[in-house]
Amino acid sequence: MRPKIISEVPLKYKNLMEQCWNANPSERPGTGILLKEIIIIKFYYQNNPNELPQLKTKMDKEINHANVSSKLFTSKIHKYKNLPEPKNATEEEQEGNIYLILLKIINNH
After folding, report:
1. 33: how many CB neighbours lie within 10 A of its CB?
2. Is residue 25 part of a domain?
3. Record's InterPro entries (predicted)?
4. Domain assignment of residue 39, yes or no
5. Which of 10, 54, 60, 68 reaches 20 to 30 Å from 78, CA-CA?
6. What is the pLDDT of residues 9-38, one digit of tens each?
7. CA 20/CA 50 separation, integer angstroms
8. What pLDDT, on the 0 to 100 scale, is given for residue 67?
9. Which residues contact 32 (CB under 8 A, 6 or more apart)?
């Protein structure tokens, strides 16, 4: 049984979700294709924000009416061993071009 897709979900996302739900695993998109399609869809809606007014309005209403527990905003101190040394983001990452980096990775494999 699959979750119900709300009517405001863009058709491109709906089609992609349904492909991922295919009963035959060999007919589901691979991770590289999936990532590439999500990036393409995201860029499309970033450049055409007027295409999503119903979804944005519905989400805004749900967020405004949500009862958020204060427990969600409490934190605990965790201690981890053997973590890698922190490193600074590359210039491309700082400029927000992480999607371009991912596309380069996908296209090179």
Report:
1. 13
2. no
3. Kinase-like_dom_sf
4. yes
5. 68
6. 888 889 999 999 998 889 999 999 999 999
7. 27
8. 53
9. 106, 109
Domain tally for the chain?
1
Amino acid at 21: W
Domain range holding 41?
30-52+93-109
Non-local CB neighbours of 28 within 8 Å, separated by 6+ positions = 19, 20, 21, 22
DSSP string of 64-92?
HH----GGGG-------SSPPPP-PPPHH
Instruction: Answer for the pair 70, 78: CB distance below 8 angstroms, yes or no.
Output: no
Tokens of 63: 């967020």
The pTM (predicted TM-score) of the whole model is 0.49
Position 83 in a domain: no
| Residue 22 placed within a domain | no
